[in-house]
Prior knowledge:
By secondary structure, the protein is an all-alpha fold. The chain has one domain (5-110, 118-128). Helices cover 44% and strands 3% of the residues. The chain has helices spanning 5-12, 29-47, 60-78, 83-100; strands spanning 105-106, 127-128. Strands 1-2 form a two-stranded antiparallel ribbon. α1 (5-12) crosses α3 and α2 (29-47) crosses α3.
Amino acid sequence: MYASADAITERYGPESLHIVTDPEGVVDMQAVDRALLDASAYIDSFLQSQYDVPLAHVPAVIVRYCVDVALYWMAENGGGVSEERRQRFDDATKWLERVSDGKAALTLPDDDSDSDDGEEPSLDDGVVIHSDERLFTRTQLGRF
């Protein structure tokens, strides 16, 4: 699983789990875990075209989208999806499609890279965008 019930409550508060409660108001943790497992599998279905899944290192962006997808599905099964949850689910799906198409990438540790200073690279953002070298520089365009 790419996220946990704790990740849900850290991001959206403990009341976010009340979507899946029994008649006595107790949170159904099996339903939460099932939704998180389903969300992780959903994410893997997009990532598998570019990465080995399941991911050994889980970037923060994947945790966030796993939480958003799981909450959407729990709300859907619980009988009410808010527009905000639907938008978060749609945003997660669009970003995952971009990753699947190679238009976005995850920042993952490189197993065979050796850092000169001995420190691990920062993986907080979870996304890296690459581009070609600049064709025009300020010097080249200075006369225009």
